[in-house]
């Protein structure tokens, strides 16, 4: 069945970081999404010119409201408008939900390893929130690679889940680490990947999302560490041009 464009009304918005914003929409004509899916967003100018981009959903599966968290791309055509200009009460168009491979379903019982690079945390947050919403007990661990502490998305929510023992969270800071951090800032190496993720003998379902070079490096490292290729699911993004 062909998905169609439907209206989405912005009902709430707040900054996540200085360069990113979370947008909450009501889109009653959109099919109920699964955790990990994305939607296409279309903007139309007064002269009829349109631009569209794909954005992952951060809201839990089946939520009444859909949530997108958008990073402002300096040369972007859509993201600066969404981050800096779109106002509560404005309408945009969305299409979806899209994607059947990069999803987590509550009936899955195997351990789950989530690995995010930058804003790749967004669809993984949908999986985390879905697990919380259904009271899931499958073990779930998050490894989050981010440039600086200030660049973390959903920081307070992740910290609260970690403090409550509901989610094990590991961070790798690539450019600037907190002053009291146990490791120097640097890229996620194969050695760190092996140290901070669930072991292959636990046979976890692994979800990796982030920029294309990050995802490719992580997927290669996971295979080298002994994870089954079939257990690794990836979602990547890059420049739209």
UniProtKB/TrEMBL annotation:
Domain FAD-binding FR-type: 3-104
Stored Gene3D superfamilies: Nucleotide-binding domain of ferredoxin-NADP reductase (FNR) module, Translation factors
The UniProt record lists the keyword Metal-binding: yes
Name of protein: Oxidoreductase
PROSITE patterns, per the entry: FAD_FR (PS51384)
Cofactor(s) for this UniProt protein: FAD
Keywords: 2Fe-2S, Iron, Iron-sulfur, Metal-binding
